[in-house]
Amino acid sequence: MQAHLNERITRVGPGTPCGELLRRYWQPAALLDEFDPRFDARMAERPLKAVRLLGQDLVLFRSDDGAWGLLDRDCPHRGADLAFARHEGDRIRCPFHGWAFDAEGRCLETPAEPVGSTLCQRVRQRRYPTQVVAGVIWAYLGPEDSTPPALPALDAFVAPASHAFAFKGQWHCNWLQAVEVGIDPAHPSFLHRMLDDDPSADAYGRQFRSASLGDVDGERWPMTRVMRERASPEIRHEALAPGFVRLTTLRLIDDRHTHVRVTNSLFPQTFVIPLSDTLTITQWHVPVDDTHTYWYSFFTSFGAPLDHETMRAQRLPHLTLPDYVPRHGRHDDWAFDPAEQRTRTFLGLGEDDINRHDQWAVESMGAIQDRTRGHLGTSDKVIMANRRTLLAAIDTVAAGGTPPMALTPAEAAATTGPVTLDCIAPAQGWESHWAHKAAALRDAAPWRQAEVQPT
Questions:
Q1: Overall pTM surpassing 0.85 (yes/no)
Q2: How big is the CA angle at 292 (ends 286 and 87), to the nearest 5 degrees?
Q3: How far apart are CA 190 and CA 202, in angstroms?
Q4: Fold of 153-449
Q5: Residue 450's pLDDT is what?
Q6: pLDDT band of 218, cuts 50, 70, 90
Q7: Which fold has domain 26-140?
Q8: Residue 105 DSSP SS3
Q9: Among 270, 228, 273, 266, which Cα is nearest to 248's?
């Protein structure tokens, strides 16, 4: 890739071509958990926090009536930092001169001005639309005169709170590196390879230990064995709609059986993968700025309700609050263990948190990968296709058009699912086999038996 194209697809700040594209979509700004005093004691008295998103510094707060305000962080008076604002119920107040703003960005008071001053009526702080869906506060940073698109009706967004859970973590890398590891179907055979099998292990981070749906002559094959022994898959990608791509990865086991893994890529920064035969992950990669990214994972259960406390407790030890920064990273070589690399895992970075595997892959490239030095192969076909789509979408927005997956309400309502699955299928007729299994699993979900509203 030429250097100027790498710049074009990685820089996300205001006024950059890629930044203008990403501002045409809703972006996760914070977990609801971040305003829970159990995880940040400061929120009990002052539900306000600084947020950095797409290279912009913002302040996010909840007023006493439950409204959310997302405003530019610099006070419009003389630029003081509103992250230090006083929280006063239905407004926040700059400590510098007492200017007050509500959740809509209206200036309510300029108390240092003379009696009768109408200055506050002529001042407005830039406010960004927000909505709460699936345990996350979302923000729209597009042009003030634009209409935000609708979020697609993905399972992750329509499942009730009992069957959904959201979490996040930060990586020190550009957003596109994070996306490209998620839509790469070949990497699990190496990056997440375990050198032994323990199909009984179902703890957090060890999802590739679980067995695929189906069997080989009565024998259940753990995913570790499939990935380890069938490392050169056939990769197919099919556009279901502009920007909505189904990825099918086939690993032939023998002349009668094949392993089928179906995942999905949703432009510009989302993928959906199976975690088990009843659980999926929808992961959204959100640029903090050019060199930092938050991944937001939305877990959706098609079986039993999710135990939120257990899922949270499994994940929090790997991060530091309140910013969800990993405990390991470049500063300690991601806790690399060469003895483990010889005996237990292909990478040597533990088997209890495979997020750290992906973290190493994307962070070790550098904060912004130099794609001029890359040599892509046939197994990178999805990466190449996504880059072409990204460059075309940037050009579309620059020309005043609408990019893929910036959906109207009708289009969003029709964008459902998507189906994901890991299964062992007949080598002949695998297409109908996996589709039937996937439909049966989704249709069995208790919450899909009745009308539900987004959580």
A1: yes
A2: 75
A3: 20
A4: Naphthalene 1,2-dioxygenase Alpha Subunit; Chain A, domain 1 (3.90.380)
A5: 58
A6: confident
A7: Rieske Iron-sulfur Protein (2.102.10)
A8: coil
A9: 273
